[in-house]
């Protein structure tokens, strides 16, 4: 049985109690924030804690010292309680295994070629997210200089 994280884990990220995964994202990007909102809705087991790479950098640096802010700005990262890290498409694929409502997609995310195609699609979206029709992106919050 998976123990749920307490609500305090979202505000005191260094003290997450239980098997919480950290979903590290760019809180300045509206597309990223919207994606995190979807993950929160799908996280019926409350096993994912969303961590903004800008405002919560000190906690991230303590938990995953090998990652840099530049690494994290390139793609969403998922950090397991034991320290394993997935990035980009691999993070999305791992999320599908953690979120019961996405379990039906898991076989499709592992068909031959899914890693290559999924990674390319993820990189394309990440690099061009400043073109997504969000007002904040039009003001440069998702500028290509960062992605």
Walk me through the structure.
- The protein is of the alpha+beta class and 147 residues long.
- It has one domain: Glutaredoxin (3-Layer(aba) Sandwich).
- Helices cover 39% and strands 11% of the residues.
- The protein has helices at residues 30-42, 57-63, 69-74, 89-98, 106-109, 114-127, 135-138, and strands at residues 21-25, 48-52, 77-79, 85-87.
- It is globular and about 35 Å long.
User: What does the radius of gyration come to?
Assistant: 15 Å
Number of strands: 4
User: Could you list the spans in which at least 5 consecutive residues all have pLDDT below 50?
Assistant: 1-17
CATH class: Alpha Beta
Instruction: Identify the CATH architecture.
Output: 3-Layer(aba) Sandwich
Find the structural class using helix and strand composition: alpha+beta
- Specify the overall morphology: globular
The CATH topology, please?
Answer: Glutaredoxin
Whole-number tally of structural domains: 1
What's the story with the biggest beta sheet? 4 strands, mixed
Task: Give helix and strand order, one letter per element, not per position.
Answer: EHEHHEEHHHH
Biggest sheet strand order reads: 2-1-3-4
Strand content: 5-15%
- Span from first to last CA? 38 Å
Oligomer: single chain
Mean pLDDT: 81
Percent range of helical residues:
25-40%
């Amino acid at each position: 049985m998976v123990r749920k994280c307490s609500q305090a884990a979202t505000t005191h990220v260094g003290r997450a109690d239980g098997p919480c995964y950290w979903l590290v994202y760019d809180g300045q990007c509206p597309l990223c924030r919207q994606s995190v909102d979807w993950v929160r809705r799908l996280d019926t087991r409350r096993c994912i804690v969303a961590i903004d790479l800008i405002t919560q950098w000190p906690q991230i640096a303590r938990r995953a010292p090998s990652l840099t802010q530049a690494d994290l700005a390139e793609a969403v990262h998922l950090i397991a309680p034991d320290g394993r890290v997935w990035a980009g498409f691999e993070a999305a694929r791992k999320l599908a295994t953690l979120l019961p409502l996405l379990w039906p997609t898991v076989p499709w995310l592992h068909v031959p070629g899914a890693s290559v195609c999924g990674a390319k699609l993820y990189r394309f979206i990440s690099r061009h997210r400043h073109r997504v029709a969000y007002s904040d992106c039009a003001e440069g919050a998702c500028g290509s200089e960062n992605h």
